[in-house]
Amino acid sequence: MTQHSETDLVVLQAACDVPSKQSEGGGPTVYFDGSCPLCTFEIGHYASQTGGNHLNFVDVSQKVPDLGSDLSADAAMRRFHVRLSDGRLLSGARAFVAIWNTLPRWRWAARIAQIPGVTLALEGAYRLFLPVRPVLSMLAARLGARAENSR
Fold first, then answer.
1. Number of helices (H) and strands (E), helices first, in the chain?
2. Please, which domain of life does this record's source organism belong to (predicted)?
């Protein structure tokens, strides 16, 4: 197992902190698996970025009152989803692009995704990632990441 300094673990843990508040401007709603340390780490990173306060974060591993008629709790746990402020539901690569477009430091990635074929390639990569997510999540936990609902 890799040795990590106390500072490394503090930085990693700080990036895992996901706010439970709603956004200031009624921005996109991000549905994430709070039982997954890797997912919580990534969402914590987005939440800590400039513009993260414009995102709403919903941990779908907990009882969620209403996800909408077009999103079941099971589907939300299996795949990443974002609901735009106009009500449209995006999943997979398109959901990530919506987040990137909201965060000023990530807009470069959203612009690259607009190149024809790039979002399709990102979706393919995302589908390859999904089966290995549990293993990567275990590795993230060993590095100090914690699930949102394990605090």
1. 7, 4
2. Bacteria
